[in-house]
Amino acid sequence: ASKYETGDSKKTVLDSGYSDDAGNERATFLILCRDEDVYELLETVQNLEDRFNSKYNYDYTFLNNVPFSKDFIYLLASHIPSGTLNFGSVAESHWQYPSFINQTQAQIVRQNSAHFPYGDSESYRHMCRYFSGFFYKHPFLQQYQYYWRVEPGVKFYCDVNYDVFKFMNSHGRKYGFVLSLFDYRDTLPTLWDHVKDFMVEKGITNPPLIDLVKNNNVYESYNLCHFWSNFEIADLSIFRNEEYEELFQYLDGKGGFYYERWGDAPIHTMAMSLFLQKHDLHWFNDIGYYHAPYLQCPQESATFLKNRCSCNPDDDFSYDDLSCTSHFLDIMGNA
Ligand code: GDP
Ligand code: MN
């Protein structure tokens, strides 16, 4: 029974309050979540509308591995004043074990992996694999060039007074991030070896961004650096191409999404390091952002004031020892 539905629960395409200022890029927010996330999500969406999207009216795309309830759709549709809202389900074949995975072995791995985050979770592994190799193939995303990934519960602490998608386009950026960090090695013990093998197989030598992820000059190990993928503003073309697809298929075939616990963040970062150039990357250091337990809070007081930030700059994570952003800046500085 619906608590909220009063009329048309399929009110998924609303009149767009188009203004002179409205964003003109083919772009959408991308939110994978479950029905029970709805109240946390309403807070996040309200925050995002207030800080950014009430000026630009970009679309939202909500995805779920099962169909959303009518209440979920109704609540989001009532709270978001403009733009198109897409509510979609993930294809079953994009959220299940591929045939070559031995599910008994995968289960044994989970039972022995409670010592790292989500080590014992099956659904988390499907989710990470989905964000690594499938989300950009969803029919709803075909109409878009850019996405901004958002999760229920994240917070935005500053006004974003410019169209971030237009920025990406006019500056030719392909991948934007806010926070970065060093991963748990236990989640991906063999990933680096497979990436190295892939490079040899494909004849990829010394890509310009490889120093982002490698520990030293002889390709010895992965330094665990990755862009935190709960926030991404990116050009979908970085995934929709043959070389990314080959990398995904190659790694997927090694079974590490299930026999280890590879996250989509390190997979994305590996791909960026193999296939992108320095000028394709952008650190949105002017965006105040929190995803537990880490905060990005602008350090420049001019930015802080102009964008009416409401976070504590002293709690910023960007220059913490566990953050990879200083390393990123070093790499970029050598451009
Ligand atoms: P964390 O950020 O690594 O702690 O992982 P989260 O639990 O936040 O999951 C990442 C994203 O995937 C969030 O947007 C979640 O809402 C979503 N998510 C994770 N697992 C599932 C799932 O089983 N089903 C659905 N529909 N969404 C999921
Ligand atoms: Mn999260």
TrEMBL record:
Localisation per UniProt entry: Membrane
Active site per the UniProt annotation: E232
Domain of life: Eukaryota
UniProt entry tagged with the keyword Metal-binding: no
Family annotation (InterPro entries): Glyco_trans_15 (IPR002685), Nucleotide-diphossugar_trans (IPR029044)
Bilayer disposition of the protein: Single-pass type II membrane protein
GO biological process, one term: protein N-linked glycosylation
Similarity annotation: Belongs to the glycosyltransferase 15 family.
Descriptive protein name: Mannosyltransferase
Gene: KTR3
